[in-house]
Design brief:
- The structure is a single chain.
- With about 70 residues, the chain is mainly α.
- It has one domain.
- It is built from two helices and two strands; from the N terminus they run H-E-H-E.
- The protein has helices at about 10-25, 45-55; strands at about 40, 65.
- Strands 1-2 form a two-stranded parallel sheet.
- It is extended, with a radius of gyration of 17 Å.
């Protein structure tokens, strides 16, 4: 790498793109705070432990995700 190299975060670029799409469709939140829900289709305890190591205190609880059959 050198002075002419720009490091691009794919996570940031994805977030910017999603925001643009939400705004363009008129479904972006314009005020207040959002809500985080952490769902896992696997072992909840394992998911929550890993999530806390990666995300920190933001992951206070995790819930089981299941597909509803019609």
């Amino acid at each position: 790498m050198g002075p002419g190299v720009v490091l691009v975060s794919s996570a940031d670029e994805t977030a910017f793109f999603v925001k643009e799409m939400l705004v363009a469709r008129g479904i972006a939140r314009t005020s207040g705070e959002g809500e985080h829900r952490f769902l896992s289709s696997g072992d909840i305890a394992w998911f929550a432990e890993l999530g806390r190591r990666l995300l920190g205190p933001e992951l206070t609880s995790a819930h089981q995700w299941t597909i509803r059959q019609k």
